[in-house]
């Protein structure tokens, strides 16, 4: 991974996902993924040509963009003790994998520019190390800038369900302490389970009700499990 891609992957805006239990169950029932897992591939936007202006009035054209989705209950930084123990486990697993392999010819790898192959475990360790550093108090890269409230089309009243979900969701420590700004943008997603009892027409009707309450541009409809037989 080149440096530009690494920056895009690790320092893009964070969206906090708040999904109802019914929606999580519907998604996991057929593919074993969480709602956040399903959303992540949709967070990449390529082939853009959007003019923007930086804080020092420098013009720039945005060619690609990414959003990082995290469930609300995962927006927390583990303690140093927990992080150290976890990273030790990563190294132990790596050692168990490579200890029987022959020692690489590092000099030859240096000459061919393939020295990274001598430590195949390092990329995973680096990724997990940086993951343990997410959501700290003093760096705002990982503070959520928006919240996505996800309810299902099977909900009897998705408008009320979304409002209740937004009110009752336990806030991450960053928001509870006031370190991160609570005044985030909100978007409401009505998730339609194609394998469930509700029809797409019913989902579209409920979407209209949500848009009448929360605004036309603040609500969207997405379908999952459309290929389930």
What is the helix/strand order? Answer: HEHHEEEEEHHHEHHEHE
Unreliable residue stretches? none
Q: List the strand order in the largest sheet.
A: 6-1-7-8-9
Strand fraction: 15-25%
The gyration radius over C-alpha positions equals 22 Å
- Secondary structural class: alpha/beta
Query: Gap between N and C termini, in Å?
Result: 38 Å
| Secondary structure tally, helices | 9
Main sheet properties: 5 strands, parallel
- Report the helical percentage: 25-40%
Mean pLDDT: 85
Shape category: globular
Identify the quaternary structure here: single chain
> How many beta-strand runs?
9
Question: Any key phrases for this structure?
Answer:
229 residues; 20% strand; 9 helices; alpha/beta; 9 strands; five-stranded parallel beta sheet
Brief overview, please?
By secondary structure, the chain is α/β, with parallel strands linked by helices. It contains nine helices and nine strands.
Describe it for me?
This protein has nine helices and nine strands. The protein has helices spanning 3-10, 21-31, 35-39, 80-98, 106-112, 122-132, 158-168, 173-176, 200-214; strands spanning 14-19, 44-45, 50-53, 59-62, 65-66, 68-71, 144-152, 185-193, 219-224. The strands form three sheets. Strands 6-1-7-8-9 form a five-stranded parallel sheet. Helix 4 runs antiparallel to helix 6. The chain is globular, with a radius of gyration of 22 Å. The two termini are 38 Å apart.
């Amino acid at each position: 991974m080149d440096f530009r891609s690494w920056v895009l992957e690790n320092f893009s805006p964070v969206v906090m996902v708040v999904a109802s239990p019914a929606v999580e169950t519907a998604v996991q029932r057929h593919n074993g993924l969480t709602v956040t897992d399903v959303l992540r591939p949709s967070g990449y936007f390529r082939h853009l040509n959007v003019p923007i202006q930086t804080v020092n009035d420098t013009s720039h054209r945005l060619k690609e963009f990414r959003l990082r989705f995290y469930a609300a209950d995962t927006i927390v930084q583990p303690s140093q003790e927990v992080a150290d123990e976890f990273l030790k486990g990563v190294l132990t697993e790596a050692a168990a994998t490579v200890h029987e392999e022959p020692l690489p010819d590092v000099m030859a790898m240096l000459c061919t520019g393939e020295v990274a192959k001598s430590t195949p475990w390092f990329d995973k360790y680096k990724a997990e190390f940086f993951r343990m550093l997410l959501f700290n108090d003093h760096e705002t890269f990982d503070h959520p800038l928006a919240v996505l409230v996800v309810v299902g089309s099977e909900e009897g009243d998705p408008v009320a369900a979304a409002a209740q979900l937004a009110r009752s969701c336990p806030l991450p420590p960053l928001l509870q302490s006031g370190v991160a700004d609570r005044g985030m943008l909100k978007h409401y997603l009505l998730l339609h389970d194609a394998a469930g009892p509700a029809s797409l027409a019913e989902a579209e009707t409920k979407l209209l009700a949500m848009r009448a309450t929360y605004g036309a541009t603040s609500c969207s409809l997405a379908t999952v499990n459309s290929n389930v037989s």
